[in-house]
Amino acid sequence: MGKSIYISDELYEFLNKKYGGDSMDTTIKKLLHLETFQGKIVNKQIRRERLAPLEKYFWPILNAINLPRKEMQKQVEDYLLASGHFDQYPDELIKLKNTQERWKSRFTSALHSLKEQGVIEPSNSGARNWQGGNYRISDSGRTLINDPTNPWVSMHGSDEDWDITAT
User: Fold this and answer.
1) H-only helix segments in the chain
2) How many beta carbons lie within 10 A of that of residue 9, not counting itself?
3) Which pLDDT tens digit goes with each residue over 111-127?
4) Hey, where are the domains in the chain?
5) Which architecture characterizes domain 49-166 according to CATH?
6) Which of 22, 57, 138, 143 could lock 110 by a disulfide, CB 3.0 to 4.6 Å apart?
């Protein structure tokens, strides 16, 4: 059973005008960025500092670049699990409204960022991202990866443990 809360008439009128047609329950959830997911109230938004920087995804993606997208994502997941990534950033395991774990959405964002920066490029022009797709490291991406002053290299060490340059 729902609980009663008391708010001022002014606040009630303001909320009713701004979110007309929505229940007060729905209005409060919108204002607090909450949603109901699998019978529980969850926060839709996570503070940025609780999420890994997208750059943390770059090196594992580049290491798996020769695999089809679905297999690449699985290899990145295995790396993130083995490296303790989710111990450091547990909010990335929270499921989004579409029931997908947040890290998968961040993986896609990182992949898109690498494409936008010109580090990787599609190796087959016909496939769309949701169809899988294959990627390769671009010439400018290869130059960037081989640069010892590159922040990714300092974040992940040298490519001795990675087979990136062989792609």
Assistant:
1) 9-18, 24-31, 55-63, 69-82, 85-88, 102-116, 139-145, 151-156
2) 7
3) 999 999 999 998 875 55
4) 9-46, 49-166
5) Orthogonal Bundle (1.10)
6) 57
